[in-house]
Amino acid sequence: IDISKFVWKRKVKSWKNKLNIVGVSNWITECAYSSYLLKDFNCQTINNTLDIRFWKREDKSICKKYFNLPDDLRFIGFGSLGYKNTNLKGKDLFLSAIKNISYNKKKIALFTIGDSNSFIENEYGIKVFSIPRLEKDIEIKKFYNCLDLIVVPSRIESFGQTASEACACEVPVV
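Now predict its structure.
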């Protein structure tokens, strides 16, 4: 069975009534307009919003204490939740950069969210502090506020929520 063809036919059959298509960015809306399946539907963009009264800079030392991080290190952040077997979130690009740049490994460490990143310390010689997952926005905000820099090397991203939240917390994003 060609699952793509099956799904395509099912969509064509099911989508007889006009749908309102909402993209979270102009790019996604343009993709919908250029799609053979969606080109005749009403497509509009409603951008994601960010509450900058919540997502803001907080005291770095207090946030580091929350995660039991040493205060004397500078932290580079990276997250790869649920992407152990793919490179969609750019983990391979991130590791290549860590391998190929020069930095003082006694002053800089990684603070990561997500997949097991313990191998990085052994393979690349940089100290890694890791947490498996954060569920609450308040904890995510504390994560950003521990960082001196966050790396978001995603190959595909419908909306860069991580980058936007980090920027709102005044954390540089690469």
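The chain has a mean pLDDT of 87.
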